[in-house]
Specification:
Two copies of one chain form a homodimer. By secondary structure, the first copy, chain A, is α/β, with parallel strands linked by helices. Helices cover about 35% and strands about 15% of the residues of chain A. In chain A, strand 3, helix 4 and strand 4 form a beta-alpha-beta unit.
Chain lengths: ~350, ~350
């Protein structure tokens, strides 16, 4: 930190992205990316758009919003696009939290929530999960602040039902509820269909996972028009051209190829169920994940060792050193071949004990 | 504004981007874009990268930083890339301004500075320009806050010399000086070469103007390593993957085609001088612009009328309703054909009076 940096950030500890080592070619099961290339329609749209890069992108994302409303059945003033869903989550922390309105979220969840709270100098309340890693929704009733829930939750993969989400919303009539659905397309129920019913609900999603576009940075928020207008006020005061031309075109392209997205999600679900079955045979314990990752531990093999040993074998998985997570690993679901390689490698490690 | 929006933003007035009407095809001389398509090397790099969109972009922008250091002669820890230069300017307002350290900038300058200050709830001091629209650098000596100077300034196009920039830096030893060089490639002197000499200097630039990449959203900051680390702390606490894969690749591509950039800048400079000469013949008054735009007024034709009448003729230029600017227009410099169309249209309007 330089001597010029404002002291308000002197305790800020940034988020740590998953490692992206460049020393060799790995099977990457550590950052929840899709193993599938983007849709051909993405490639076509992107190339066409790159020729017009000298012109600013459309701050209103008109074409993308149009394509989106046709697929999602919301009105055009009920959606906003951002530079990845991290950006809209940060905007939501800015818009809906302050000294009087803390952020409220599980103690174990997407690690960026506490960073956003620290960044924006808003108080936050972290609520413990149940012993089985599930969320006790009553803990979030009349929370006295803005509720942030990842559904499915990270890194557990456990999903709340739509009825549970409804209960949280209805029991916080005076506060916002933000449902972060980054992983919803792999088997959970989306709350997008509820936005017309509740004035205190915002749903965020990303094109990074189910749509194979992590590298394009495209996220969105869906909510009633007044809430979207709040986020637009922040966006137009921060970075009006936050979505670049190519990602915008890529987004239109992928929305015109929903069949490809659905097929890929189905494959991930099948590969997840296969991996769960095989790892259970090897003695692993795990949560019931509805995401494109699983959250596993082996009673006789430590999480940090498993990560280190698999890395030596060319397979990356995620591990955290936080005490409550240190027995666990998060493993992204890739292709069947990648998962078989993982299962085989794990089998070898367990046999070598 | 919804009832849930934090009251801290109740007075926030967002930045207004230049209009991008879609009702017909215009000659766009209103948002300082380049009239030239991006380099062929940009197209090649982008297409290649779009095939890998399922993978996150590199938060460290390793390849882009490498290409940059080869062209700009700085070290790899002396540069940071952002989602357009608006993002790094906002990060600088965050990092270097607070209740004790106001932002200090000219009253007439890039309109986003005051928005960033309001957004971040930091006090700011706006200093009047001289009557000829020039900056009196002594007004910024021992400014008691973080100085933001656009060089060339917007919308005047007037540039400070490197000696004047040095004087501002040296007379603010206890405060940061941010030099916003969005338009520097069209005839002003860059302060990038000074970063090794001063620990309180940060220079920001963009690929939007001289490199024909406004739609890619790629900006950067250059400063000593401690200052870049400050901005990295903010970036990694906001949006670590802020630069997408395609824009990153496009940036590498354009940096490998410096000849194309230089040639385009030279053409813009020539077209600017031609336009200045022709508009002066028609009675226009203007500042000595070193940017890819000119700042003009006609003693007998109002700024708002000129904008409205040119729009009817299919030509967009920029006008502001602020009292001090209302006589003026800002006209982006395009191709020779576009400028001739402007000159002819203006001639017709003046003849019709």
């Amino acid at each position: 930190m330089s001597k010029f940096m404002s002291s308000k950030y002197s305790n800020l500890v940034p988020y740590t992205p998953g490692e992206q080592p460049k020393d060799m070619k790995y099977i990457k099961l550590n950052t929840n990316e899709s193993p599938f290339a983007p849709s051909e329609k993405v490639l076509e749209a992107t190339l066409e758009e790159a020729k017009k890069l000298q012109l600013y992108s459309d701050p209103d994302c008109t074409e993308l919003v149009k394509a989106f409303t046709e697929v999602y059945g919301v009105a055009k003033d009920e959606v906003i696009f951002t530079n990845g869903s991290d950006e809209i989550l940060n905007f939501a922390f800015m818009a809906y939290c302050d000294d009087e309105t803390p952020a409220v979220f599980p103690k174990t969840t997407y690690g960026f929530y506490s960073v956003f709270a620290e960044l924006n100098h808003v108080p936050y309340i972290e609520i413990e999960l149940n012993d089985d890693w599930s969320i006790n929704i009553e803990d979030y009733f009349n929370a006295g602040g803005t509720v942030f829930l990842a559904n499915p939750n990270a890194p557990t993969g456990i999903a709340l039902s739509l009825d549970e989400i409804r209960a949280v919303i209805e029991n916080n009539p005076d506060n916002m509820v933000i449902i972060d659905e980054a992983y919803v397309d792999f088997g959970a129920e989306s709350a997008v269909k509820l936005i017309g019913e509740y004035d205190n609900l915002m749903v965020t999603q990303t094109f990074s996972k189910s749509r194979s576009m992590a590298g394009a940075r495209l996220g969105f928020g869906v909510a009633n028009a007044a809430l979207i207008q709040d986020i637009n006020t922040i966006k137009y005061s921060t970075n009006p051209y936050n979505v670049n031309r190519m990602s915008m075109a890529a987004g239109v392209g992928v929305l015109r190829d929903e069949e490809y997205t659905r097929k890929n999600c189905q494959t991930i679900i099948e590969n997840r169920e296969y991996t769960v079955q095989e790892l259970k045979k090897q003695g692993f314990e795990m949560t019931d994940s509805k995401a494109n990752f699983i959250f596993v531990k082996h009673p006789e093999y430590s999480g940090s060792k498993l990560q280190a040993e698999l890395k030596k074998k060319g397979i990356l998985i995620r591990h955290w050193s936080k005490p409550e997570l240190e027995e666990y690993n998060r493993i992204t679901i890739g292709t069947r071949e990648q998962m078989q390689a993982l299962i085989d490698a794990v089998g070898e490690l367990l046999a070598e004990r």
